[in-house]
C-alpha cells in the first residue's frame, strides 16, 4: 500500500484507498507472510495530533496499512479531490475482521481498555461468531513488570491478529516498539473499539452512523471529549488550505 496511486495524504498522513474487502485481503497476505505488520486507523484527531508530534507522524506513515476511520477523513479526501473508496470505521472493522478470522481460522488476541472490557468484548464477539478463536485478552493498564509477562504471553500464544486499544499515539508507539519481538503478523491499533464491541460504550443509532454523526453521539455520551473534538474546525480549515495550495501548485 506504499504506491502513491493507492494512497492519499491528509495533512501529511498517508491514508490507503481501501475498502473492507481490501483490508481483509491484506490481512490474509500479512498472516501468510508470517512477518510482523502494523495496521493503523487514522481519524481527524489522530491527524491533528500527528501534526504536533513528528514521532507519531513517522510511526503512522511507517504502518503497513492505514485504513481511514470515520466521516472526517472521508470528507477530507473528497475536499482534496481524491475520494476514498469507502467510509470505514474502527468499530465496524472489528466485526468485519472477526467474521473473516472466524471463517479462516485465524486467532485473535485483544489487548486494551479498562479491566473487564476485553472480556466483555470477547464474549460478544464469540456470541456473534461462534467459530472465532480469541486466544487471549488483557486490559490496557499495565506497569513495566506486567508488560513483560504480557509480552511473553503473546509470544507463547502466537495469535495471528493482535488488536491493541491503548488510545491514539500510545498504541501505535507500543506496536512499533514491540512488533518485531512479538512476531505477530497483524498488529492493529484500534483506539476505543473494545469499549464499543463490549457495549460498555453505546454506539450511535444506525441513522446517525449513516449520516456521519457518530462523533456527535459520542460527544453527548462523553462530554469531556469536547476538549479533543475542538480540533475539528481547525482540521476542516487546514484541509481547505491544503486543497487551495494543491490547486495552485497544479496551475503553476
Ligand atoms: N486505554 C488503555 N490504556 C491506557 C490508556 C487508554 O487501555 O493507558 C484505553 C481506554 O480505556 C480506551 C482506549 O484506550 O478503551 C482509548 O479509546 P479512545 O476512544 O479515546 O481512542 P483514541 O481516540 O484515543 O484512539
Q: What is shown here, in short?
A:
With 252 residues, the protein is an alpha/beta fold.
Describe the structure.
The chain has one domain. The protein starts with 6 loop residues before the first strand and ends with a helix. Helix content is 54%, strand content 13%. The protein has helices at 20-33, 44-52, 54-61, 71-79, 90-104, 117-128, 144-157, 170-182, 193-197, 206-210, 214-221, 226-229, 231-251; strands at 7-10, 13-16, 38-40, 65-66, 107-112, 133-138, 161-165, 186-189. The chain is of the alpha/beta class and 252 residues long. Strands 4-3-8-7-5-6 form a 6-stranded parallel β-sheet, with helices on both faces. It has a two-stranded antiparallel sheet with strand order 1-2. The structure holds uridine-5'-diphosphate.
- Assembly form of the protein: single chain
- Global mean pLDDT: 94
The proportion of residues in beta strands is 5-15%
Largest sheet: 6 strands, parallel
Structural class: alpha/beta
- Write down how many β-strands occur, each being a DSSP E stretch of 2 or more residues: 8
User: Strands across the major sheet, in which order?
Assistant: 4-3-8-7-5-6
Query: How do the SSEs run, as a string of H and E?
Result: EEHEHHEHHEHEHEHEHHHHH
| Low-pLDDT stretches | none
Distance between the termini: 29 Å
Amino acid at each position: 500500500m506504499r504506491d502513491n496511486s493507492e494512497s492519499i495524504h491528509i495533512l501529511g498522513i498517508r491514508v490507503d484507498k481501501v475498502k473492507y474487502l481490501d483490508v481483509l485481503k491484506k490481512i490474509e497476505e500479512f498472516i501468510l507472510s508470517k512477518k510482523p505488520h502494523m495496521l493503523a486507523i487514522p481519524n481527524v484527531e489522530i491527524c491533528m495530533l500527528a501534526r504536533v508530534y513528528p514521532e507519531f507522524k513517522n510511526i503512522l506513515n511507517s504502518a503497513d496499512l492505514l485504513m481511514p476511520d470515520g466521516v472526517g477523513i472521508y470528507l477530507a479526501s473528497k475536499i482534496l479531490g481524491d475520494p476514498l473508496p469507502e467510509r470505514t470505521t474502527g468499530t465496524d472493522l472489528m466485526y468485519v475482521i472477526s467474521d473473516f478470522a472466524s471463517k479462516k481460522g485465524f486467532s485473535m488476541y485483544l489487548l486494551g481498555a479498562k479491566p473487564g472490557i476485553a472480556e466483555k468484548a470477547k464474549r460478544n464477539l464469540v456470541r456473534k461468531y461462534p467459530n472465532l478463536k480469541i486466544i487471549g485478552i488483557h486490559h490496557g493498564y499495565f506497569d513495566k513488570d506486567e508488560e513483560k509477562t504480557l509480552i511473553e504471553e503473546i509470544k507463547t500464544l502466537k495469535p495471528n491478529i493482535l488488536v491493541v486499544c491503548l488510545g491514539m499515539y500510545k498504541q501505535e508507539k507500543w506496536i512499533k516498539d514491540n512488533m518485531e519481538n512479538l512476531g505477530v503478523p497483524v498488529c492493529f491499533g484500534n483506539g476505543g473499539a473494545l469499549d464499543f464491541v463490549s457495549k460498555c460504550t453505546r454506539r450511535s443509532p444506525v441513522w446517525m452512523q449513516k449520516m456521519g454523526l457518530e462523533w456527535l453521539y459520542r460527544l453527548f455520551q462523553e462530554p469531556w471529549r469536547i476538549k479533543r473534538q475542538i480540533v475539528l474546525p481547525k482540521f476542516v480549515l487546514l484541509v481547505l488550505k491544503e486543497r487551495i495550495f494543491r490547486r495552485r501548485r497544479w496551475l503553476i
